[in-house]
Amino acid sequence: MQAWLCENPVGVEALSWKELPTPEPGPGQIRVAIRAASLNFPDLLIVQGKYQVKPPTPFVPGAEFSGVVEAVGAGVRHLKPGDAVAAFAGTGGFGSHACLPAAQALPLPPGFPFEDAAAFLCTYATSHHALLDRAALQPGETVLVLGAAGGVGTAAIQIAKAAGARVIAATSSDEKNARCLALGADAVINYSRGQLREELKTLTEGRGPDVIYDPVGGDLAETAFRGIAWRGRYLVVGFAQGQIPALPLNLALLKGASLVGVFWGEFARREPARNAQMLGELAAWYAQGKVKPVLDAVLPMQELPAAFARMSSRQVVGKLVLRMPA
Known about the structure:
Layout: E1 2-5, E2 16-19, E3 29-38, H1 41-47, E4 64-72, E5 84-88, E6 97-101, E7 105-107, H2 114-118, H3 121-134, E8 142-146, H4 151-162, E9 166-171, H5 174-183, E10 187-190, H6 196-203, E11 211-214, H7 220-226, E12 233-236, H8 250-255, E13 258-261, H9 264-270, H10 272-287, E14 295-300, H11 304-312, E15 319-323
Parallel strand pairs: 8-9, 8-11, 9-10, 11-12, 12-13, 14-15
Antiparallel strand pairs: 1-2, 3-4, 3-6, 3-15, 4-5, 5-7
Helix pairs in contact: 3-4, 3-10, 9-10
GO molecular function: oxidoreductase activity; zinc ion binding
Domain Enoyl reductase (ER): 11-322
Protein name: NADPH2:quinone reductase
């Protein structure tokens, strides 16, 4: 097999494309011939040694991928060679093959393209878990999506609209806002102009959003939280800006608001039955055309460094996908 190997997690520049032994699946595992993999922000952090999970070196990065089952280990009953699957395994995706627990693979229905499948699990599961489970979003409520042009942001727009909510998408540029409107957002804010709170007041007639979906963190968090509605729910999804904000907790008291953590990976581990039900609903929504991953670009797997550079420049709208030749 071939893969990008991280032997020293000091940054993207330390990755190298290498020939490695093709792994054999152990009990309860499958080996997948990877067809496509997508970039998520934690993939960048993990090769920089900055992520909360630090795999032993050397390792192959790449949390999310899709492909075809090549071999199964002892005890695997629900998958067989030839089955198309998507997986979120934490590592292993940026290469030609990966072994992973069979329980981490989602069988794909017919007609689900590998590029879409590689960009589906993490962002849509995170956004569904955040908005419908953690925030208990109701039809007619207003959702503010920060970083709305990114992978989880574009997924959050689609899921909130599917749930009957009004969506305000906030991004750093007018170009990104135009893409969000095309995805179904009802209104947009360019927060690079420094008028986030004022524009929120105008767009919500002074009431504020019922739910704030925040994968960005940094200096936007307090401004957004100050504008939240009474009984609002602030979803802590991630920190793409790089800074973990410190919020004055008196704001939660004054607004009767909830600060809600979102950790889909841990939810999937602790509540597998509910997670499986959620993934089934998302797959049905995809088939019905309610949700569809936004792909910024599809590049050859060998161009991973260029893909990371594009992600770091914050140019990406939706997800970057890397493709292995069939």
